[in-house]
Amino acid sequence: MRIHSSIADLRAALTGRGRVTFVPTMGNLHAGHISLMEQARAHGDTVVASIFVNRLQFGPNEDFDKYPRTFQADCDKLAAAGVDVLFAPTETDLYPEPQEYVVEPPAIQHQLDGEFRPGHFRGVATVVLKLFNCVQPDAAVFGKKDYQQLMVIRNMTRQFALPIAIIGGETVRADDGLALSSRNGYLSAAERVEAPRLFRELKRIRDALRQGEQDMTELENAAVAALTAAGWKTDYVAVRQQADLSPPQGIGVPLVALAASRLGSTRLIDNIEI
Ligand code: PAF
């Protein structure tokens, strides 16, 4: 696996490499990331991953400084997964001057996760557009675990007519249902035992809807109440339309139940398609 930190070196290395599939990450890789790499392999001749902890998408009181940085272990995992090229820019490589031109996503950036993480999706969209320009991939793979992020990137790519196919990768879960996430490492042993409750509540919503329940607000409120009773502090539990994450407007449209809740000081997100 070749590792490049400069944009110019990366572009030179990718010249003539056939169909390029790209998987951007912030590192601290787990089996969920590796499954995205495997999916990327199926879509292209050359798989490019990136590792960059993007300051622009973290709020002032968020975990940018303590975000786990495990570069050597990540390189070993990427090489073992058959990744061809790793783009690992420093902040100076990617932001040699303050990034004053930004991508401003539409109103959805202020809803769901965006309501609780102001500026987050602006930071994500901006860095992803920049990474796309550096790598110039034919396809890019993003995990469905960050469902709202996937939707923002899919719509940005379509509206800017970027010639990149956006592929959603299924969430990888531990045996007890907890979605794999770099932030799971913040959980204490007791919190780790409790953490699968978030997905259990989402499954409860899915099952009730499948059985014909129609009062989505009631289902959302019941999930929040169950989480609160178990000591969680919930930002939102919401049933939305898959396509644009707007509130459900009709029967039979594909839905997704999404949640973000805090266990101790760790904020977990998850979702389930219905
Ligand atoms: O999902 C992530 O790891 C990040 O948001 C991404 C897409 C790499 C942008 O920094």
Task: Walk me through this protein's architecture.
By secondary structure, this protein is α/β, with parallel strands linked by helices. It is 37% helix and 20% strand. It has helices at 7-14, 31-43, 71-80, 91-94, 113-116, 120-135, 147-159, 189-194, 197-210, 216-229, and strands spanning 2-4, 20-25, 46-51, 85-87, 139-143, 165-169, 233-241, 255-263, 266-273. β5 (139-143), α7 and β6 (165-169) form a beta-alpha-beta unit. α6 (120-135) crosses α7 and α9 runs antiparallel to α10. The model has no long low-confidence stretch (mean pLDDT 97). Pantoate binds at residues 24-26, 54, 57, 124, 127-128, 146, 149.
Stretches where pLDDT is under 50 for at least 5 consecutive residues are none
Main beta sheet strand tally, sense and closure: 6 strands, parallel
Q: Tally the helices: what do you get?
A: 10
Order of helices and strands: EHEHEHEHHHEHEHHHEEE
Overall outline = globular
Classify the beta-strand content into a percent band: 15-25%
By DSSP, the count of extended strands is 9
Span from first to last CA?
A: 39 Å
Secondary structure category: alpha/beta
Mind telling me the C-alpha Rg?
Answer: 19 Å
Strands side by side in the biggest sheet: 1-4-3-2-5-6
Work out the helicity level: 25-40%
Q: Give the overall pLDDT as a whole number.
A: 97
The small-molecule ligands in this entry are: pantoate
Subcellular location: Cytoplasm
Function: Catalyzes the condensation of pantoate with beta-alanine in an ATP-dependent reaction via a pantoyl-adenylate intermediate.
EC number: 6.3.2.1
Main location: cytoplasm
